[in-house]
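[job 0412] stage=complex_fold ligand=phosphoenolpyruvate status=START
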Amino acid sequence: MRKNIVAGNWKMNCDLPMTQTLISELKKGLQTDYNCEIMIAPSHPCLYPAFNSTLDTPIEVVAQNVSEQEKGAFTGEVSIDMLQSVGVKTVIIGHSERRDSYGETDELLAAKTIAAVEKGMRVIFCCGEHLDVRKAGNHVSVVTSQIEKGLFQLSAAQMEQVVIAYEPVWAIGTGETASPEQAQDMHAAIRSFLKDKYGEMTANHTSILYGGSVKPANAVEIFAKPDVDGGLVGGASLDATSFLAIADAF
Ligand code: PEP
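[job 0412] stage=complex_fold status=DONE, emitting structure tokens
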């Protein structure tokens, strides 16, 4: 079912004391009801303490990445089973920093996604275009191609476990945000692409988040758009007050 979601991607910013401090600030600021699911994505070593510290809250702890491999000689990698063993049920796959800095290809991301979904995980699948692509007017075809290559091996039933995060790379960590209209146009294009492949029900049930310099000052306007179901938030999620204000935007 389509849900509103606000997810904080903490990237490689918080060690354990910082993770614990940020979680306790979030817990202090939490109100009783939000019209969205709230997720945080700490670094791998902090997932289990974060999971334990949020048990009594509506905050879900999610992972920033996972291996496509099941187990074995893959030094430095973290498996789906390992994430699940520390309480993680959702994983971000295909963030542009993984694509650009670590060479994660569409094929690898497809393998990660199918492996995670088959083990019952929910996946936040990221897609988004670079600035030159947008300037050339090819943004919709690039993003739909990322979705086709990364997700279309899934069945309609498996798509129930997928959330899409549209993150224009030119808006990530730059302070520049897509306008609410630019976000809406892309989200509508993604939903229509899903409809062509899977039908209306899947298209209408898939949450599509916007990511790229979301902050309290722009969240209300962006989230008000009919095809925007929330945000994947980087920088502003490192401040509890800002992050909760974004969640409050619904
Ligand atoms: C992100 O990295 O997913 C992101 C959207 O970052 P920021 O909010 O800082 O642009």
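Residues 88-212+224-229 form a domain with the TIM Barrel fold (CATH 3.20.20.70).
[job 0412] exit 0
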